[in-house]
Design goal:
With 171 residues, this protein is an alpha+beta fold. Helix content is 24%, strand content 26%.
């Protein structure tokens, strides 16, 4: 029986986005996949009214003994999800409208949404939550910094990568 195809980081990012879209959309927010930390910081410094969630794969580390080149086919991928307040995610109520919830409540809800993802890695639990912290204020002037509340959460996933053999393409 052939092994299932490894999950690419682009596919994993879409899985995280789908999970967070379902949470953020009804609350007036948006979710965006960012290609790297440079783009993440560009997005962070753009002041917008709408709350946002940014997803970025920040790298991966191969597992195993470096003396056995190419033997290991599993990596630990590192991820950052950044929550930017804007004017705040809305609490949901029966009418579908609400007031802005406390930023810490939004951040904890996003953390738990990420921790619930089941189809993103090859090990249990699929998401290893590594922690969270505020991101530094990087807005261009002190006035802008007052309006920027942002928190980053970090997690990793264990993912297989294609095995390479002599004269073959990944597969």
């Amino acid at each position: 029986m052939p092994l299932p195809k490894p999950i690419k980081s682009s596919e994993a990012a879409l899985i995280v986005k789908a999970q967070l879209d379902a949470w953020a959309g009804p609350r007036g927010g948006s979710v965006k996949i960012i290609e790297g930390l440079q783009h993440l910081w560009e997005e962070v410094t753009v002041v917008k009214d709408k709350p946002r969630i940014l997803i970025c794969c920040t790298g991966e580390e191969s597992r195993g003994d470096s003396g056995i080149r190419g033997h290991w086919q599993r990596v630990d991928r590192q991820w950052q999800v950044v929550l930017i307040r804007g004017h705040g995610f809305k609490n949901l109520n029966a009418e579908g409208k609400g007031n802005a919830e406390p930023f810490s409540d939004s951040w904890e809800a996003v953390r738990d949404e990420v921790r619930k993802i089941l189809n993103i890695g090859e090990e249990w639990p699929p998401v290893e939550y590594l922690g969270g912290e505020p991101i530094p204020n990087l807005a261009p002037n002190k006035e802008a910094n007052v309006y920027l509340s942002a928190q980053a959460l970090k997690f990793s996933t264990a993912n297989d990568i294609p095995r390479l053999t002599v004269n073959q393409q990944p597969g």
